[in-house]
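Summary: Need help interpreting a holo structure output

Steps to reproduce:
1. Submit the protein chain below together with the SMILES for zinc ion.
2. Request a joint structure prediction with the ligand placed.
3. Inspect the structure token block that comes back.

Expected: a single structure record containing both the chain and the bound molecule.
Actual: see attached output.

Input attached:
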Amino acid sequence: MLCHSCYAEPALVATCAACDGTGRATRMPLCASPWDEVVPGLWQGGHDVRSQSAKACVVDDEFDLVVSLATRRGYGPRDGVEHVVARLADAGVDALTAERLDGLAATVAAAVAAGRTVLVRCSGGLNRSGLVVALALVRTGHDVDDALALVRAARGPWALTNPGFVTHLRSLA
Ligand SMILES: [Zn+2]
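--- attached output ---
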């Protein structure tokens, strides 16, 4: 994982105290909240929170659309809520994955544009969900740096620290 302070940016990494200039993270704490709103109507979250509460991340009918990049039995959403399940590995992005991601981002962007509330979730609510949310933001006109910043502002500095995901996002700029 990338350092949460310098993100291995060439201009910052050499003098970064958080990672001693390595650009890499050795820990990635869970978020305190199960989900956070990144831009109006678009939420990002996961199945695990810092409190380890078994119920905190169970989705009921808070959202009109839930996109799950990882699933766990008993975590909702309630029957009747639109639920897109698209399992995604927390790994690099190959061409086929890029195509799937593009489709997911289109679905998310269209729903938000239609005024629906959308939750994109994975396990920790940091990387896989962050990637799909960022791609949806790029689709709706944000530039890549802006999308990265919005996701990290909502979910904290450890969001989007998978270097393959950041590389994929940057390749769109
Ligand atoms: Zn650093």
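--- end attachment ---

Reviewer comment: The longest strand covers residues 35-39. Residues 3, 5-6, 13, 16, 18-19, 23 surround zinc ion (CB under 6 Å).
Status: needs-info
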